[in-house]
Amino acid sequence: MKNKKITHKITQGMYVLTTKDGGCMVDAVSQISAGDHPLISVAVRKDNYTNELLKRNDTFALSVLQKEIDPKIIEVFGMHSMRDYDKFAQVNTIEIEHLRIIEQALGYMICKIEDRIENDTHTLFIGRLLEADVLHEGEAMSYEYYQNNKDELLKVTTETGKTAWVCTICGYVYYGEELPENFKCPVCGVEASLFEKRKGE
Ligand SMILES: Cc1cc2nc3c(=O)[nH]c(=O)nc-3n(C[C@H](O)[C@H](O)[C@H](O)COP(=O)(O)O)c2cc1C
């Protein structure tokens, strides 16, 4: 593939998906039908704990993040697993329809799961929008904005004089000339093709 980075130009937003007992950061969200109660799809990696939870639960919420969001929220929900870390203890939430919503977010959408489609890496959960509201005014953060400002948002730094591989999803840094075979990000689980090589000058 010549340059997969062009996929970052697919316009996606930044959301915290929550369901009973957990949740994670997602950008792979689309509205896929119209009307008062449209269908919303969200793609969740099969190895995320949230995927297991969504197969047990029948509703989820999406909290819409803005450019000024505290980056800690992205770190808490996108770089830890609820398997061994209580994300809800780290972030202020409000409860709506028995689901946790990020208090600082621009607003939320609550969906009831109607269908799901499995692919090689993700499950596409399709939910019917039941409830939604705007909580604050502001400009939504796009995934492209996150990608362009990730180092600053997540305070990613690499040591001078060392070759570093930086995870383009979560900012995890691996030092070494090459990534080991079958390497996966130990923080967010993505494959080696999503790492960017940086020469530490
Ligand atoms: C900016 C960003 C966007 C992400 N987008 C998605 C996504 O669309 N789908 C997904 O399954 N994981 C996505 N992730 C990764 C999960 O949020 C991450 O693996 C999380 O730690 C899973 O937590 P869990 O095991 O508690 O479910 C994203 C992470 C970040 C930082």
Summarize this, please?
By secondary structure, this protein is mainly beta. It is built from three helices and twelve strands.
How many individual helices? 3
Query: How are the strands of the largest sheet arranged?
Result: 2-1-5-8-9-4-3
Query: Using DSSP, what is the number of strands?
Result: 12
Percent strand equals: 35-45%
Element pattern in H and E:
EEEEHEHEEEEHEEE
Number of domains: 2
Shape designation: globular
- State the secondary-structure class: mainly beta
CATH architecture type of the largest domain: Roll
Helix content estimate: 10-25%
Poorly predicted tracts of residues: none
N- to C-terminal distance: 27 Å
Specify the CATH class of the largest domain: Mainly Beta
CATH superfamily of the largest domain: Electron Transport, Fmn-binding Protein, Chain A
Mean pLDDT: 93
CATH topology of the largest domain: Pnp Oxidase, Chain A
Rounded Rg: 17 Å
The largest sheet, given as strand count, sense and whether it forms a barrel, is:
7 strands, antiparallel
Ligand inventory reads: flavin mononucleotide
Please describe what this structure looks like:
The protein contains three helices and twelve strands. With 201 residues, the protein is mainly β. It folds into two domains: 4-143, Pnp Oxidase, Chain A (Roll), CATH 2.30.110.10; 156-199, Rubrerythrin, domain 2 (Single Sheet). The strands form three sheets. The protein has a seven-stranded antiparallel β-sheet with strand order 2-1-5-8-9-4-3, with helices on both faces. A hairpin with a 2-residue loop joins strand 6 and strand 7. It starts with 14 loop residues before the first strand and ends with a strand. 29% of the residues are buried. The chain binds flavin mononucleotide (FMN). Flavin mononucleotide is lined by residues 22, 24-28, 43-45, 48-50, 74, 77-83, 146, 169-170, 188-189.
